Structure formats: structure tokens, C-alpha cells
Amino acid sequence: MVSFFFKGVIMRSIAVVMLTASVALSAPMLKDRDVFFYPTQAGDESVYEEQTDGNTSELKVTVTKVEKTTGGHIITVRWGNEPGKTLENRVTVTRNEVTELNGPPSNPKPGAPHLRLPAKEGLTWKFEPYGPDKPEAANSVYRVAREEETVVTPAGTFKAVRVEVKTGPNGIFKDSVEWHAPRVGLVKVEMKVGDTRRTVVLKSFTPGK
User: Fold this and answer.
1) Residue 29: DSSP 8-state
2) Over the Cα atoms of the chain, what is R_g?
3) Does the global pTM surpass 0.85?
């Protein structure tokens, strides 16, 4: 991560913004089943801003590869912009989900399930990498808190689905709130790491060519 916090949080869900700040997203788009909640264009590049205890840092995120699948895409994302210090992850994106992929491309396995669609208030799902019998581990419960909420970021104002995440007491990330916008994905995260509160927002976007 520019900090491992940032990568860990947003790899629990990140999306590169597909619209400029001048584009207003209308409420009906949240209900549009033909819209993905993640970027699908190779070369899309976002800059995210992390604020922690008065300190600010940035992270560049670039879509490097888009593979079409039945019903969606597998997106490869590169984190960072310093040679030798970048990381990559892969995400499955369909009209029903946004889910990380773990393991090598030859043997991928589902990872953190960032979003389930269609989003309905109260919809709940779990991620239990350590098994359902170990609630003290870094198992997480996701819940749609609001189907639609206005989010203001340096990159613009978006209508987004608010997802609240609670993680087991032995997890690094305790409680977090993620905002997912149609066609743009994650636009904001608020998270508690230990006793520290951190906020990540979309700062800018450059579309791929």
C-alpha cells in the first residue's frame, strides 16, 4: 500500500473512477442492471488520497488488464507508481458481485466479497477465510446500510451504495464503511485500524486510451 493499510482496505474493494468530476450520476443508475460497479477499461488510472491523523498520502491505481468472462470481467489492478514497489491484484466483476481473486491465475480462488447486487438495504453476506467456527479471527460481515447515499469527493459527487463491514477482533481492520458507485466502483472508505481512524477518497481520474 502506499501504506499496507491502504492496499488492504481498498483491496477489500477498490474501483477506478470512470467519470470526471463534471459528470453527475443520477439515482436511477444505482438500479441499472446493465451497469458494472467497477471499471472495465484497461489503462484507467485513479489517484486516491489517504488522510490519517492530519497526514495525507496518495496512491495511484491503474487497471492493467481486462479479461472478459461469461457475464462479466476479470480485472487486474496495479497499486503504486514507484518501480519495484508496485503490487497487483485481480477482481471478478459481474452484475451480481465484485469479489477479489486470490492465488495464481492458473488456480484462482474467491477472496473478499466487496459487493453483492442488487443492493438492498439490510442485505448481509460474510467472508470467513478462517472458517465459521472462528469468529475471533479476521472473519468479516458485510451489510448494505443504504441503497443510495450522496458522497462528495475531490473527484466529484456520486450516488453510491453504502456498505458497512465488521471484522473479527483479531483482524487488522476493525470497522469500515465503503461507498460503491455504479460504473466507478469504490469512491470512499472510512476505516478504523486499531485506535486510528483513516479516510480514503478518490482524488482524480485519468481514463485509459
Assistant:
1) G
2) 16
3) no
